[in-house]
Amino acid sequence: MRSYFVYILASKTKGTLYVGVTNDLVRRVAEHREGGIDGFTKTHDIKRLVYYETAEDVMVAMEHEKRLKRWNREWKFRIIEEMNPTWKDLYLDIC
Questions:
Q1: Using one digit for the tens of pLDDT, what is the confidence trace for 11-52?
Q2: Considering only CA atoms, which of 16, 33, 23 is closest in space to residue 7?
Q3: N or C: which end of the chain has fewer CB within 10 A?
Q4: CA angle 88, 89, 91 (to 5 degrees)
């Protein structure tokens, strides 16, 4: 069964955030880090993977992504810090 990932990238601790969804977290974060994706993350230098979770169903993952995008910054900070209190770049852990 295929897994899907909802993830949050940050420019720095409590910096600019980006919420996304993908079926290949390592590839997708690498694309952001390398600047290969034009748009918001490239413009704001958002490269640090600070949060992710898995879902078995793409629709569930997409709904959760939409819900997270509507959350205010403090709520996003809270879920990041529950998983990753130091805002460590988790990319190296998933490679």
A1: 999 999 999 999 999 999 999 999 888 899 999 999 999 999
A2: 23
A3: N
A4: 140
